[in-house]
Amino acid sequence: MKIIDVPQTGKKGITVAMPSRYGQVVRQLAIPSNPRSEDQMAVRARLSKFAKSWRTLTPNQRESWITAAGKLNTVPVLGQSGTLTGIQHFVRCNCNLAAMGANSVVEPSMPVTFPPLIPTALEITNASGVIKVSLVCDDDPTEYTPVWAAAPCSNGKSITTGYRLLGTCPKPVLGKSDITSLVVGKFGTLTPGTKLFVKANQMIDGFTDLPHLWSAIIPAG
User: Fold this and answer.
1) Number of domains present in the structure of the chain
2) Burial profile 19-36: b = 16 or more Cβ within 10 angstroms, e = fewer
3) Domain identity same for 72 and 148
4) pTM of full prediction above 0.85
5) What span, in angstroms and rounded, lies between the C-alpha atoms of 49 and 71?
6) Which residues contact residue 122 at a Cβ distance below 8 angstroms, ignoring those fewer than 6 apart?
7) pLDDT at position 163
């Protein structure tokens, strides 16, 4: 239910307040579904593993993460943010590395400056029923360029949710990186007329930049 009130976010009793594209909203608290999918369990396993690993660090190593985290802010909410804790910084960096198949680290790295993202556009073709999904790339992507997608949806949608990690951006051939097998492997057969949302970002030393988002309608053959 949309209401006129001061901007707020969070849970109070059985109600939840949040800002939305339509203004301030208050809704009844709903228990989210817990399908315990393979992807969901993998994320939980990584979080649990590195939360426990924090206790295995030496005092000096933990102090290094605490000092480094003090220079990093959380994502702003309603214009407010704070610094990360040492364990938050440690777990976030190592979960990002693990998701890409990289080795974990016990010492923090300096924040990085990201180069321009290599993928620049999403292209979907359908040649006599053979659907191909590609990212346009003028060069080879950086070592870790995660590619994400949401399940194909109605072509009338302009936004969607539920993005899932497909993997890293494959090496391009003739300026195009073929991600068809990654999409089909995650969501199954692609249907002409539906819309596909794909995004990509970069991961360096456990740090990630903001993703670029593209969408395209799967054409008829």
Assistant:
1) 3
2) eeeeebbeeeeeeeeeee
3) no
4) yes
5) 25
6) 133, 134, 135, 136, 196, 198, 214, 215, 216
7) 96
